[in-house]
């Protein structure tokens, strides 16, 4: 049984509890555990078979209560609390709350007032203008919901900003444990705040890049190694998201952060401006001839 299946159950329980306006600490506990389980290098079933429930309790952010839920799933194939919560809501309800601009409270309102329980129904009612009459919605909110539905459809094969941010934070948290890491910054479309993310770009300053690369490709969240080099490595995480890591010198960190954050068109425009001033701009710095005149982080 894959760890992703256990994590998915915990994510769902957290979403159902949020719909019920339950204890926020309980909701966060399920979500933290789901994140940890997704990044584990060992199969939960194997851990349980080797060390019983005590082995599960020792997993960070799991503890005794949630370990019992994992044990229940292993033994029975189900988690009773998840099934009980699911019965309180329409079958496709979780899809609704994951649409940007909807959320639990709006989803409950839509169901109670208009019996909307699927994305297709939501899109139909939104286009008809029926949502505009509901309390707290209106034309602007309806417009945002339609945009969220479009974004959800568009994001297949990509990751929504919130999801990508959560996985980037997990990688940053792990990499910061290395004493060889002096600075670290997520870049790319994540740093630009794009609605959907194709992959993660993480920039690091270190005088020992080989040690950083060795550590990065062996992280528990990594499913496959696409490439591994002295200053750049690419991996695929267990959730399918690609993550690229680059190590640069301190003197180039500012330029690298700018370069790997900017879009292709942005970087081309910057190079054109630089050329007009007899300068050269790259991820390594700003140069006049062979001399670097800028590039450090301000």
Summarize the structure in words.
It is flat and about 70 Å long. A hairpin with a 2-residue loop joins strand 8 and strand 9. The longest helix is centred in the N-terminal third of the chain and has 17 residues. The N and C termini lie far apart (49 Å). It has three domains: 84 residues, DNA polymerase, domain 1 (Orthogonal Bundle); 62 residues, 5' to 3' exonuclease, C-terminal subdomain (DNA polymerase, domain 1, Orthogonal Bundle); 133 residues, Beta Polymerase, domain 2, CATH 3.30.460.10. The strands form three sheets. A five-stranded mixed sheet has the order 2-4-7-6-5, with helices on both faces. The protein has a three-stranded antiparallel sheet with strand order 8-9-10. It is built from 14 helices and ten strands. It is an alpha+beta fold.
Descriptors:
298 residues, DNA polymerase, domain 1, 10 strands, 3 domains, three-stranded antiparallel beta sheet, Beta Polymerase, domain 2, alpha+beta, flat, five-stranded mixed beta sheet
Summarize this structure briefly.
This protein is of the alpha+beta class.
Shape summary: flat
CATH architecture classification of the largest domain: 2-Layer Sandwich
Number of domain modules = 3
Indicate the mean pLDDT: 86
Beta strands, count: 10
C-alpha Rg (nearest Å): 23 Å
């Amino acid at each position: 049984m894959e760890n992703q299946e256990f994590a998915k159950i915990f994510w769902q329980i957290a979403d159902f509890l949020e719909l019920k306006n339950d204890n926020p600490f309980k909701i966060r506990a399920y979500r933290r555990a789901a994140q940890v389980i997704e990044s584990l290098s060992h199969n939960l079933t194997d851990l349980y078979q080797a060390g019983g429930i005590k082995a599960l309790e020792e997993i960070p952010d799991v503890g005794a209560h949630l370990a019992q839920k994992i044990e229940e799933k292993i033994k029975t194939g189900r988690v009773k609390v998840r099934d009980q919560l699911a019965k309180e809501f329409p079958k496709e309800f979780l899809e609704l709350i994951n649409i940007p601009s909807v959320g639990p409270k709006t989803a409950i309102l839509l169901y109670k007032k208009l019996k909307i329980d699927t994305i297709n129904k939501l899109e139909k009612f939104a286009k008809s203008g029926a949502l505009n009459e509901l309390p707290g919605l209106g034309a602007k909110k309806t417009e945002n919901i339609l945009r969220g539905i479009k974004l959800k459809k568009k994001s297949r094969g990509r990751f929504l900003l919130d999801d990508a941010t959560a996985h980037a934070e997990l990688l940053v948290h792990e990499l910061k444990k290395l004493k060889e890491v002096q600075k670290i910054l997520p870049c790319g479309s994540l740093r630009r705040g794009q609605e959907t993310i194709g992959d993660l770009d993480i920039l690091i300053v270190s005088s020992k890049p080989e040690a950083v690369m060795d550590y990065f490709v062996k992280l528990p969240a990594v499913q496959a190694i696409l490439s591994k080099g002295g200053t750049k490595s690419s991996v695929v995480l267990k959730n399918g998201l690609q993550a690229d890591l680059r190590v640069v010198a301190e003197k180039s960190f500012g330029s690298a952060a700018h370069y790997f954050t900017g879009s292709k068109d942005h970087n081309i425009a910057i190079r054109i401006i630089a050329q007009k001033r007899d300068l050269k701009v790259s991820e390594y710095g700003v140069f006049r001839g062979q001399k670097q005149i800028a590039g450090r982080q301000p």
